[in-house]
């Protein structure tokens, strides 16, 4: 079974608009961490934002925020005021367990295209 | 602070050959993880090394192996290459403290093409 599901293979958004990228996850652990990474065409994966399972507030980092709905097991990434440079692949990932001794597991990704 | 460096950036090999990829982590990081990225399977975890010991292993055949040196630099080796091994191989480093919130810092990857 997929641990991380990203149902949107591709998304388009107008420059300066906000966009939400969906991510649902599957785990029976109470302690886990959720990550979002951006991968531009250069190939390097860039860390964007982190949400811990026990965090009561939704994480925010600049124009990135995470809409964390624990009961629904979803961790959607919201990008506000989209810029042309936001065009890239976006990956949701999860690490399970309190000891952090499991590898980061990634979803298949969403390709975001920002239109001028 | 220099980022994660992977060499070479591109590699072309033929079936049956073997290949070695190199990764230099961020200074001070002791953990190196390797991932294979393909359009069909996405990012799949290969293995993680910490202080020269393999700490975690993914579900790949024994043709895929790795090692880590005392300076934390890591190499991965693929023997008897198959067409399906064509992929972007990403290396990531971290402190290795084993916390749920530990983030990985990735290199730009090595694009391997097997002909």
Give, in order, the helices and strands of chain B: EEEEEEEEEEE
For this structure, the quaternary state is heterodimer
The averaged pLDDT of chain A comes out at: 95
The percentage of residues in β strands of chain B lies in over 45%
Shape of chain A: globular
Fraction of residues in H or I helices of chain A: under 10%
Q: What is the strand content of chain A?
A: over 45%
- Which structural class matches the secondary elements of chain A? mainly beta
Q: Biggest interface, and residues per chain?
A: A-B, 29 and 27 residues
Structural class of chain B: mainly beta
Shape of chain B: globular
Arithmetic mean of pLDDT of chain B: 95
Low-pLDDT parts of chain A are none
Total strand segments of chain A: 12
Q: Helicity level of chain B, as a percent range?
A: under 10%
How many helical stretches of chain B?
0
Question: Termini separation of chain B (Å)?
Answer: 37 Å
- Intertermini distance of chain A: 38 Å
Ranges of chain B where pLDDT stays below 50 over 5 or more residues in a row are: none
* Helix and strand sequence of chain A: EEEEEEEEEEEE
Supply the number of helical segments of chain A. 0
């Amino acid at each position: 079974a997929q641990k991380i599901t990203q149902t949107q293979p591709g998304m388009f958004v107008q420059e300066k608009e906000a966009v939400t990228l969906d991510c649902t996850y599957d785990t029976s652990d109470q302690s886990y961490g959720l990550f979002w990474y951006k991968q531009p065409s250069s190939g390097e994966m860039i860390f964007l934002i982190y949400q811990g399972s026990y965090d009561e507030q939704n994480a925010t980092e600049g124009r990135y925020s995470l809409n964390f709905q624990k009961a629904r097991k979803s961790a959607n990434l919201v990008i506000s005021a989209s810029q042309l440079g936001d065009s890239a692949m976006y990956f949701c990932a999860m690490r399970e367990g309190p000891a952090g001794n499991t590898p980061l597991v990634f979803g298949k990704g969403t390709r975001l295209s920002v239109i001028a | 602070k220099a980022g994660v460096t992977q060499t070479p950036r591109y590699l072309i090999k033929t079936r049956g050959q073997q290949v070695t990829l190199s990764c230099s982590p961020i200074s001070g990081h002791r953990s190196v993880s390797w991932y294979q990225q393909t359009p069909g399977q996405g990012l799949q975890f290969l293995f993680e090394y910490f202080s020269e010991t393999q700490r975690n292993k993914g579900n790949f055949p024994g043709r895929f192996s790795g090692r880590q040196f005392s300076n934390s630099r890591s190499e991965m080796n693929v023997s008897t290459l198959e067409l399906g091994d064509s992929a972007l191989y990403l290396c990531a480093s971290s402190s290795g403290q084993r916390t749920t919130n530990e983030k990985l810092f990735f290199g730009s990857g090595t694009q391997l093409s097997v002909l």
